[in-house]
Automatic annotation (TrEMBL):
One Pfam family named in its UniProt record: GHMP_kinases_C
Gene that this polypeptide is encoded by: thrB
Official protein name in the record: Homoserine kinase
Job description of the protein: Catalyzes the ATP-dependent phosphorylation of L-homoserine to L-homoserine phosphate.
Reactions catalysed, as given in the entry: L-homoserine + ATP = O-phospho-L-homoserine + ADP + H(+)
Location within or outside the cell: Cytoplasm
Key words, A-Z: Amino-acid biosynthesis, ATP-binding, Cytoplasm, Kinase, Nucleotide-binding, Threonine biosynthesis, Transferase
GHMP kinase N-terminal domain: residues covered: 65-156
Entries under SUPFAM superfamilies matching the protein: GHMP Kinase, C-terminal domain (SSF55060), Ribosomal protein S5 domain 2-like (SSF54211)
Lineage: Bacteria, Pseudomonadati, Pseudomonadota, Gammaproteobacteria, Aeromonadales
Stretches of the chain forming a coiled coil according to its record: none
EC category name: transferase
Family affiliation: Belongs to the GHMP kinase family. Homoserine kinase subfamily.
Binding-site list for ATP: 97-107
Amino acid sequence: MSVVAFAPASTANVSVGFDVLGAAMAPLDGTLLGDRVLVADTEGDFALGKTGAFAHKLPDDFKQNIVYDCYLAYEKALEQKGIGRKPLVMTLEKNMPVGSGLGSSATSIVAAFVALNAFYDQALSEHELMLLMGELEGQISGSVHYDNVAPCHFGGMQLVLDEAGVVSQTLPSFDDWYWVLCYPGINVSTSAARSILPAQYRRQDCLTYGRRLAGFVHASHTGQEPVAAAMLKDVIAEPYRSQLIPGFDAVREQAAAMGALATGISGSGPTVFCVLKDLSQAEKLKGWLAEHFIQNQDGFCHICKIDAEGARVTGTEL
């Protein structure tokens, strides 16, 4: 028996929702922007293989790979439920660049858990899986936060609550928004992006953050597109993280000239996102970004819509 699961890339923060808002992304051209994980039965010992465009960026020792930690955590959860383990092997298809701001670690973690859970006939509930995903994501980032793993797993635009037994809830999204995502090819580690943030914020910035996040959530639920777009401004991270991203100010200026509703940093960067309503303008902006923002062969640019499906089983072979 074998099973393959896919988990999509995600844009966390979405400017207005630092650590509490995230959206899964799906390129219009059908590209599977995300990682895949294969789980297969075996008669031998556990092993974890790696393949994919960015596999060479991963440690050679599979015990240093986050997917191995997912395997251990899942086996422990099964043991706590009194469920016997099955001999298996795993393969990670690493299609997402590490340190891209597109939820690279989350795609590996979510795909691993979804594949393992399918292999074990859904032995864990969705809620139990999500708690494990947050825990494993916290191993990498230093603290548990769900703004990548929640949209990656559930799909859509997710508002993280983490209260009253609810991890996140889906926000309505605007179907005619095109999200242009561009990864320049350089890396910005999450820890570096967090360390550049101030330890304390002015009261006015906190009030502005709360007002805009509440405004965006309300506008999303009531279909007020111009209001929602106007709220997509970041006073918490972007003023500091933008200095880690060469050319960010030029991207914002060019996007605005092409009619973008908003421009921001995806997660902790260096990927940027631009929201447009006109597909032809989105295509033009994609071309401009490819010429002026991408810095090496690792970079890429996609025009996306929000992926409503999230992580899913896609077959039995990579």
